[in-house]
Predict the 3D structure of the following.
Amino acid sequence: MGGRRPLGRRFGWLWAAYAVSAFGTRLAFDAFALIAILVLHAGPAEVSALAATGLAVGAAVAVPLGPWVEFRRKRPVMIAMDLTRCAALLTVPAAHAAGLLTFAQLLVVSVVVGAADIAFNAASGAYLKALVRPEDLVVANGRFESTDWTATVLGPPVGTAAMGLFGPVTTVVADAVSYLLSAAGIRAIGGGEPRPVRAGGPGARLRPGDLLEGWRFILAHPALRPLFFNTVLVNGLILATAPLLAVLMLGELGFAPWQYGLAFGLPCLGGILGSRLARPLVSRFGRHRVMLTAGALRACWSLGPAFVRPGVPGLVLIVAVEFGLIACMGVFTPVFAAFRLDRTPTDRVARTLSAWSVTSKATIAAMTALWGLLAGVVGPRAAIAVAGVLMLITPLLLPRHDLAPRQDAERDPAPSRA
């Protein structure tokens, strides 16, 4: 997947751990939203609130985790976050079996999993940068991206079918087990990992300024700053409408859960295609041109779901629109991820990725809540259309020029003022 260049045994274990957790997560595609709709009989506002609150509070809890992760060995952090997510998710089937599952519990578990996601991603990004050569970052990220989309092709249809056959919390159990297996895979990587040393010595304490260092670096960097605003807004607009589309398709339009899963699983073949094309396109056209073009094209599809209708024509429309969007994302994401790692100094990777994730999740939460309110006033279809129109302006936030050399070869543009 994503290139034939060998990246070594240790990367192989990291990739395997990523793959098993990705498949588990995709099996549980929209599981909490579906549980809220089908078990707790939640409406559009409640489903949006579930998605928004978990993201927002989880992001707030994760703010100090970036500096904490930065100065710790990354593999133990990744293992701890996997085990935390596993334990939190297992409380849902336990409560459901006892007849005690509540909307509040889904909110709490969403918060814990959201915060652990941010810490894990910050640690894994820093670990990946140390594990592979800079010229292999596009290949490595392409393999992760291809794996993610492969899991998304297979996961939602299988997961929604499993929910129909074995009960609504089945895929939550599978997701929890996948994190346990991921932790085992990360432990199997082996090898030494030096403990990062803080300025001021190993005993130096976390300073208030460390909490803002990731944002300070991003906003001072001429190439990362526009990408930051672009990706945060695009992700927010796409994910804010996901609960509304679920309510529209499963409620008003009468699609079965398996049709809903198929509508979002099949188009992910586009993500596999895009991620496999990323490295050849970069080799031919250059990283910045590919990132700019794919980033602009991914903004052209989100208006389509506003026109979905019942039956086969509506299902075909959703599949076609999502295929185009996901194919563009499949090209853009590994190129962007490699670019971001390449432009970030080694001693700032965890804080930068954490700040990026916190902002993205908080923005998604705010926009999800806002679009839930909007849908309550104008209906899910009109709210989806508004998001699609706004997506068309996001290419204006992409960097027009590759403004900076590699961070590891340049002077840090954003020294700490703490």
